[in-house]
Amino acid sequence: MSLELATHLIDIIGAFLLITMIIILEAGDLYRAIYTMAVQSIFIALAGAVLGAATHNTDLWVIAGLTLVVKVLVLPWLLLRVIHRMRIHHKIDPLIPVTTTLAIAAAIVMLAFYLSSSLVLLKQVITGNALPIGIALMLIGILVMMSRRTALMQMVGLFAAENGIFFTAMAISQGMPLIIEIGVTLDVILAALVMGVIILRVKSSIGSDIADLDELKG
Amino acid sequence: MDQTLTRWILPLIQVVLLVLLGPLVTGLIQKMKARLQCRRGAGILQPYRDLLKLLRKGTVQSDTSGSFFRVVPVLVLGATCAAATLVPVFFAPVTAGHAALLPLGDALLLAGWFALARFLTAIAALDAGGAFGGMGASREMTVATLVEPALILVIFSVAIVAGTTDLRVIAGHPVGMRGSFGAADLLALFAMLILLLAETGRIPVDNPDTHLELTMLHEGMLLEHSGPGFGCLVLAHHIKQIVLIAFVQALFFPWKAANTNPQALVMGLGAFILGTLALSVFLAIVESTYAKLRFFNLPQFLSISLLSSFLAVALRLL
Amino acid sequence: MSSLLWILPLVPTVVGLAMLGVKDRRLLNLLDIVSTSTIVMLVWAVAQAVMHAGPLRAVKTFSADAVTVVFLGLIALLSVTTAIYTVGWMRREVASGGMAEHRLSKYFALTQVFIATMLITVLADNLGLLWITMEATTITSALLVGFRLDSNGLEAAWKYIIVTTIGISFGLFGTVLVYAAAAHAGASEGAMNFTTIASMASRLDPNIVRIGFIFIMIGYGTKAGLAPMHMWLPDAHSQAPTPVSALLSGALIKCALFGIIRFHTIAIGACGPGFSGHLLLLFGIISIVVATPFILTQQNFKRLLGYHSVEHVGIIALGLGIGGPLGTYAALFHVINHGVTKALVFFVAGDAIDRYKTHTMDKIRGFIRAAPYAGTFLMLGAFSLAGTPPFSIFVSELLVLKAGLAGGYFVAIAIFLLMVIAIFAGLIHHAGKMAFGEPDPAVPRGGEPASGVLAMSLLVVVMIGLGLMIPPVLDTIFTRAVEVTLGH
């Protein structure tokens, strides 16, 4: 695959990543958010594969496969299992109105473009909009974590933010070194497990969503 | 002769085609929906029969409404037909950067005609003094405040690369000008598909099949109309739908005939038919698989389209 | 010698795994002490090697220079004193039912793994590994924070893991940017290794490093408890079991500072001392100012200490921000001083809370009568934290002051002094009310565990000793560490 074609494909994948991110941000239902997160991760894996094919960097293929297994299968499965075990309502409780979050997201994208335009050197190395899209994905993922009161949704936001970082890393330097990428993925899985355990523990002992607790103040 | 053909005859054929095929597309979507729901459904010509029936009927009008109420359906139909003259269907010749046809107007005017039609419909609904008409009008206007800016942003995102808002120039450039189908196009298309659902009054924004008072948007406004007037409004809605479908194709899949060569014309027409079929299938599938959203969740849904069209413009400019 | 670098974190890992198979409390305590003492000895050996032979490197991912040695020393000292303190604390906890006997092995194993992750964090040469282990410290310590499984503990653990993970995502992003800058500047092999990047820092694109450092500052700053990203800190510190609180406050947030110092060095090399220094200065002042009102009005003993950590992390950032050899020296020295003193005060707080069965300071009266040793240590610790001589914090705060005045940061120093005076008054007021007076007759008197007294005495000796004089060995290490930090 030629580098030009790869750049074009990465550009298109970037648009899909943004669209999935907007859907996650807007989602009023946990299932939709989780499935969209899985779809977004498929695009991340695709981006890895495309870049791997273009640059003949086998590490990227491994990263793509890893993403496919972990982010598309394992983590969504884990989240769905937690929902199942909790027998919770799947409605997501926004802390601030969703329309406002969407407006903030627009501002974030502007910020991402502003930031990436000052990264002149990097911009020459990668073509297209991969860098600003990566930054925007990460920041919007964090916005999801901060603007939702549902614990599982905060986790979805975390994974989406991580997707953004992976995409950026791929776009600007063909990914981090393989071993580091594996370590980061491992951390994400462990963090997800611990979060899941805490959520279930709170649900079984207190009967409420962990993110609703607010006894600690001052 | 060639001048007359390109300037008058072919554009006229395009408008007539849109007006005539409008009800057919609705019928097609209804049929597909019925099939997806395991019903046999009415024939795809049913909308024509409905229109004929309406045209034969007499008119009943509420006491409170004035004579303006009678004129509105015709004006709405007129505005919609005017909008139909602006979209290329299968023929979009370009000479030296601008369209070789009559400069009737551009994509912004198209949005303007739709806005005018919507405004007139809403005014008439208020004029009739019925509770549902007023409610429908207020809801339709709420939706419009979100739909229209997004529509304009979508137009801008394409116009930025095309260098013009003239749809016939945008649709007329086969290759090269727009480069390849990139991230911004994809985001704009995504936004436009949501707008298509909203503007054609379909689930999840509106439900075209219902007359349950609490769920009506567009239908609520038409409730007080009857007879030929109602027929005009229904026809206008059919036309608006096909115009929007043609509009999506003109913006994002510009495969139009560039000259009067019969082969090119047939190819252009074929592309249009295929595109219309694809978008009809899309509408039918979305209608059958989604539930109607609560009205208070609509702004949330529509702001997705606003945001992604905004992003499309941002990607183009930055 | 360089193989020490990977043996060091291996010790607590192996011991931690072995602990899972042990049920007996005494044996677990013994293993804990053995493992941490081994760490102390290994750290001593590493320090010797670094002193004599310069920086060590192992398997391309670990390295130890003078900065590492400073943080290793702190972690080792606090681990071993915490292990000693845990003996008596755990006996009481098990007796009072606060800790179920069958979960003991898990607790000890997690603590060991937690220590191991902290050790790798400061030993990591690879900045990606630094991030990975930093996140691993969050995961292990979050389990420890919520170990009691009550609703407050779990809430604190959740807040802790979510807030620091959000923060640390920024850190990963900053790391990726700096890595990309290094890769583009021509580092092919080891473009993620600190030693490689630092050696070519002047060739990095300053714009990228600047943006990268902002992300790092927000990311690792969250973990370090710098305001305004400190929301998790008082909760986690107050809800964690006492030995864990001591480790969190004394050692863990310093590990995050270690990450910031690493990138500070890179930023100094790439864009001069101005940018990262001013950012650190800003966050430092904000932390000191934000923490003060919370310290003055706080009623919960452990939360008070949590906010106090925010203030002191602010002071360290201030010292780094003022920069220059003196400011950096003061900051590194303060890392040790604050860690030691804060661990001491947390130990005291653990004793007081068990004795009075309350976190509320108003209900704690006559602590010196009830527990003569811990009560005395409380007053010593309070005076030390407030920054009075002859305690070590006084010295490092004085150095920050001196560096600030010499560097012309008059406004920052004025704010710093004002806040320190206010905190002095508040802290002595709180501590005095707790220490003096007549305790409630229901409160048990005496019966302080020897292990707890021993652990606290060790820390007090260090605290006063460093206040009176800095041993030449330590002075050399600090001076070297300053050189490494400033990139000389």
Structure description:
- The complex is a heterotrimer of chains A (218), B (318) and C (488).
- Chain A has eight helices and no strands.
- Chain A is mainly α and 218 residues long.
- Chain A has one domain.
- In chain B, strand 1 and strand 2 form a beta hairpin.
- The longest helix of chain B is centred in the first third of the chain and has 35 residues.
- Chain B has a two-stranded antiparallel ribbon.
- By secondary structure, chain B is mainly alpha-helical.
- Chain C is mainly α.
- In chain C, helix 2 packs antiparallel against helix 3, helix 12 packs antiparallel against helix 14 and helix 14 packs parallel to helix 17.
- Chain C starts with a helix and ends with a helix.
- The mean pLDDT of chain C is 92.
- Chains A and C meet through helix 5, helix 6, helix 7 and helix 8 of A and helix 5, helix 6, helix 8 and helix 9 of C.
Please report the distance between the alpha carbons of the first and last residues of chain A: 58 Å
Estimate the global geometry of chain A from the Cα principal axes: globular
In helices, the fraction of residues of chain C equals: over 70%
Mean pLDDT of chain A: 85
The sequence of SSEs of chain C as H and E is HHEEHHHHHHHHHHHHHHHH
Q: Termini distance of chain C?
A: 24 Å
Number of domains of chain A: 1
Approximately what portion of the residues of chain C adopt beta-strand conformation?
A: under 5%
Report the average pLDDT across residues of chain C: 92
Q: State the secondary-structure class of chain C.
A: mainly alpha
Residue runs with pLDDT of under 50 for 5 or more positions of chain A: none
Q: How many strands, which pairing sense, and closed or not: the largest β-sheet of chain A?
A: none
Strand order of the largest sheet of chain C: 1-2
- The DSSP helix count of chain C reads 18
Task: Output the radius of gyration of chain C.
Answer: 21 Å
Multimeric status of the protein: heterotrimer
Give a quick account of the main beta sheet of chain C: strands, pairing sense, barrel closure: 2 strands, antiparallel
Structural class of chain A: mainly alpha
Number of strands of chain A: 0
